[in-house]
Amino acid sequence: MSITPEVKKLKDMVEYQENSIVSRTIIDKKTGTVTIFAFDKGQGLSEHTAPFDAVVYVLDGEAEVIISGRSYYLKEGDMIVMPANEPHALRALDRFKMLLIMIKEE
């Protein structure tokens, strides 16, 4: 599948849904993924680990990102790297959209 270049606004590519988390994958390759998420207020992802480094970039709203038990508070324009194999979780303090870039090793 080829990619067609197209200018888009990232935060307009996924819409909020009440009491839900919505995602849209932009790129899905064996070397990594790029996904946009929209979390309704109070929604989140429970603590888990991933075998790959990931970058979270906040497109809209506010969220708490917990990495290895430490809380980080992010708002629009902020980013954080979640290291591979470190337990992490996310919680939307307000409606929250993020771009998640996961880099996989071969």
Features of the shown structure:
RmlC-like_jellyroll; Jelly Rolls; globular; mainly beta; Cupin_2; 7-stranded antiparallel β-sheet; 7 strands; RmlC_Cupin_sf; Cupin type-2 domain-containing protein; 106 residues
Could you walk me through the main structural features you see in this protein, from its secondary elements to its overall organization?
This protein is globular. It has no helices and seven strands. It has one domain (18-103): Jelly Rolls (Sandwich). The protein has 106 residues and is mainly β. InterPro entries: Cupin_2, RmlC-like_jellyroll, RmlC_Cupin_sf. This is Cupin type-2 domain-containing protein. Residues 37-101 form the Cupin type-2 domain. It holds the Pfam family Cupin_2.
Give the number of DSSP strands: 7
Contiguous helical run count: 0
Number of domains: 1
- CA radius of gyration is 14 Å
Give, in order, the helices and strands.
EEEEEEE
Helical coverage, percent range? under 10%
Assign the structural class, choosing from mainly alpha, mainly beta, alpha/beta, alpha+beta, or little secondary structure: mainly beta
**Any idea of the CATH class?**
Mainly Beta
- Kindly state the mean pLDDT as a whole number? 94
Shape: globular
Strand content: over 45%
Largest sheet: 7 strands, antiparallel
Classify the oligomer.
single chain
CATH superfamily: Jelly Rolls
CATH architecture: Sandwich
Q: Catalogue the unreliable spans.
A: none
| CATH topology term | Jelly Rolls
Pfam families: Cupin_2
Protein name: Cupin type-2 domain-containing protein
Domain Cupin type-2: 37-101
